[in-house]
Amino acid sequence: MEEQKPDIPLVQWFPGHMTKARRLIEENLKLVDIVVELLDARIPLSSSNPMLAGMISGKTHAIVLNKADLADPAITREWITFYKRMGKSAMAVDSVQGKNIKELTNMINDLTQRQTAKFAAKGARPRNARAMIVGIPNVGKSSLINRLAGTVAAKTENRPGVTRAKQWIRIGKHIDLLDMPGLLWPKFDDPAVGINLAFTGAVNDDIYDKEKVALLLLEYMQNYYPHFLMTRYKIDVLPDSTEELFEVIGKKRGCLLKGGKLDEEKITTVVFTDFRSGRLGKISLESPSV
Question: How do residues 73-82 score in pLDDT, each as one tens digit?
Fold first, then answer.
């Protein structure tokens, strides 16, 4: 593993309930026909749990890119093509607006039809398809399930680690969905993974240097989406340095303390909030071509 670069803060977060979540997933895999892995469309690689492949070996596996409304649509299409070339069933959804929710239900039904048909062929009473939905914290599992169920079936909150136990939820007439707690893995071997998870709010904001991570996010934006920065913060010419940009945003947003000193904590909050809410624009942090 490469040595940690001094300018990239190390982000690690594996609270105690994650071990329980892993056991819960392993214990209940035998009950389901398909595992639906929910990824963040902005960071499909970083939001994919490397432990999952071994855990779900032999199970039908579908990939769903959630929060597609926040990601660069051209890059999201590249990701869908990438997964399909790997032989995976994949699609993008927006659980907030409900985009592609019906198509997701159809995909689950199609992928589990062979499994549920086995029961009828043996003379048993036909049963619903059983799907397990898994993903990292704050990837939007509860919001997606509520869309699928058409009701407030799962608790939603914009912070990681809210769902702590399993829940069975009826989806339409033919699918029973097993919701699992968000699951991370014990160590992020690539520092960039931890940074991406911090950008998107998948890890607790209190465990890392928020200002340093906000500066890294602004640096990425300067390199790949400068026009979004200029539009959002009404900047005619971007400064050369990220530190200067940070200060300009603070002044533009009135993030000042007594005496005119910049409120760095408030600026950091503005940057994170604007990115995570999509106010900065549709931004992807990872591409399958890189």
Answer: 999 999 999 9
